[in-house]
Amino acid sequence: MAALIQRRLLYYLSPSLLTCFCCLFSPNFERCRFGTAFLFNYRIRHNEYVARSHSKTMNDAWNALYRFLLPCMIAISLCPSTAQPAYLDAYPVVSVTSSLASTQEVLQEVIQEEGLTPGQVTHISDMMARTGPALGKQQGIYRDAVIVQFCSAPIAWFMAEEDPRQISHCPLAITLYVLPRQGETTYISYRSPGNDSPAKVKASELLKRIVLTTQQRLTTTSHP
């Protein structure tokens, strides 16, 4: 009787144990969830079959298949994923060893070389430092942070003609920020318009090209 209870517990707990294991180590939660659902459904079907059939041969076959599928699901869940989470795709970021002022100077040069004019520069860290105490925030998040805006007329027209609502993506913006206690590491980030339409792809490619060119120049040239 005790052995039967142990087997039943293993039958029904194994999907839950697989979930816990894969949530700890799997880089892809969707695979983990799929594997767990598959095994749980398989176990239910297996129990339904056993209840209808008393064939020991078939029961052994079902158990052998289950013992084969369990490690397969674990292996699939642990396979490295090439896809990034959506939130990472929406906010690409690179870093350079350079002061924020030097990084901003190079970034604006690269924007101008694209035939564009850098627009307003918003000192977002100053605003947060000014308003933090009133909100009960005693510790700042950024040592320094600015947002550099610019606009491309061809891309603005392209996006607006594609969908008038997409004008909300203009002006385009690239953010530079430095975190406390990280020396002269400056992060360059931007909000991607997405890649689900030709105009959005065009805008994303422009932002990516500007950011990567800026990073490359600061990597190959010494800037204080």
Strand and helix map with partners:
Elements: H1 2-25, H2 29-52, H3 56-78, H4 86-90, E1 93-97, H5 100-113, E2 118-122, H6 124-131, E3 144-150, H7 153-162, E4 172-178, E5 185-190, H8 198-220
Antiparallel strand pairs: 1-5, 2-3, 3-4, 4-5
Helix pairs in contact: 1-2, 1-3, 2-3, 5-8, 7-8
Mean pLDDT: 78
Number of helices: 8
Order of helices and strands: HHHHEHEHEHEEH
Give the low-pLDDT segments. Answer: 81-88
SS strand fraction? 5-15%
N-C termini distance:
76 Å
Helix content: 55-70%
Say what oligomer this is: single chain
Shape designation: elongated
- In angstroms, what is the radius of gyration? 27 Å
Strand order of the largest sheet: 1-5-4-3-2
User: Main sheet?
Assistant: 5 strands, antiparallel
What's the number of extended β-strand segments? 5
**What structural category arises from helix and sheet content?**
alpha+beta
What can you tell me about this protein's structure?
With 224 residues, the chain is α+β, with helices and mostly antiparallel strands. Helix content is 58%, strand content 13%. The chain has helices spanning 2-25, 29-52, 56-78, 86-90, 100-113, 124-131, 153-162, 198-220; strands at residues 93-97, 118-122, 144-150, 172-178, 185-190. The chain has a 5-stranded antiparallel β-sheet with strand order 1-5-4-3-2. Strand 4 (172-178) and strand 5 form a beta hairpin. The longest helix has 24 residues, at 2-25. The protein is elongated, with a radius of gyration of 27 Å. 22% of the residues are buried.
